[in-house]
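Re: the request from the purification team.
They wanted to know what the chain is likely to look like in 3D before they choose a buffer screen. I agreed to run a prediction and write the result into the notebook, where they can find it.
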Amino acid sequence: MPTAPASVAPRARGSSVRGDIGAALAGAALVAVAIAVPLLVSDEYQRSLFAKVAPLFGDWLPHIGPGSALAPIVAAVVIGQGPALASRARFGVVLAASWVAAAGWMISLALIDGWERGVANRLTDSHEYLHEVPGIDSIGGLVSGFTGRILDGQPDSWTTHVSGHPVGAILSYVVLDRAGLGGGAWAGMLSLLAGSSAIVAILVTLRALGSEAGARAAAPFLVLAPAAIWVVASADGYFMGVAAWGIALLALATAQPGPRGWALAFPSGLLLGFSVYLNYGLVLMGVLAVGVLLAARTARPLLPALAGALLVAGLFTWAGFWWFEGMDLVVDRYYQGIASIRPISYWGWANYAATVCVIGLASVAALPRALRLSRLRSRDAVSVMVAAGLLAILLAGISALSKAETERIWLPFTIWICTAPALLPMRHHRRWLIVQAVIALAINHLVLTRW
């Protein structure tokens, strides 16, 4: 049976445990203030937020659905059996069980809203990707003519989500449709499979960086992370999976010398390069990539990874899509819409209240442990990747290009922060898992999320 190193905090110390609880209470207070402020300000200011359930994007709507029975069962199994299985089973079994459990948790949460409303119709809305797919006749024409339709106010302007992302996002759904897997249900399944596989990618990363014990301790928390609410409901769950596997391959490459390392680093670059063509903001996955190299204490995979990323960029540029032009136009389009009205005075900090809802109070409780200088200096894998995830969302917030809806937009970064509870005392893991599950169930039963 694997033993837990010091970095996984096997024993509880009174002052440290009080610090855990204090951090969690601070996170809860931030969410409470973010909910209260819109209720206390003028009606005009409240309307300018364009989020009825600020800091989350959705509508207050207490409801139940088929997932209301399934989700608590999944949570109970993970809470009851997850920590023991994760610590004792062969690592391959842990990976397989985590993927199945994560997929079960994600789909059961989606089914609280019902099949049509929670899965099949999520990406068919008039602002979404699938709305545009029937009108695309040529993949070559899509790529070369994409930037010409980004700005609003034109007869053929792209819908909100298509215009707000690079061409790779809509291209993915066109390819899915051409493969005979068109429609909202298949799009939801893509997000489910890719998003749930991200949990496996993160565990593989931590083990490759020398923290198998950290990966094992993190597994149940990754499975039950409240972030699961937004995976099936948005394309960002798919983006999260692509980016996570790019990071995982990079981590595996750090442990392999010579050609074997290059053979892993190059496809890592392909995936990370492609992720930037799914979402402009995923350039910040570079922060996670640097975290991997720091934790591994090597830059050996950097050149082949860059080669892979540049190949992707070269192919898109050759096909007619210039990423920097698209980004410039997207900034203009962003401020043509409600982003010009949404106040940064609220969203500049409330985005992080939404992040607390996504990562859960267990992750917030563990942040002081993860960010201890002693752990960071020792390049503990969990601490380094949590810090990298935090830095990525801080930079995203500073850009002022993410005002609201960050619960889905920041998924590729926040999911890494959900590994932090691995550092909580082992004897308290089941209690914190209960907290995570309750948060997810409460949000999804009380709020009809838009994404």
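For the purification team: The first strand starts at residue 58 and ends at 60.
Please add any questions underneath this entry.
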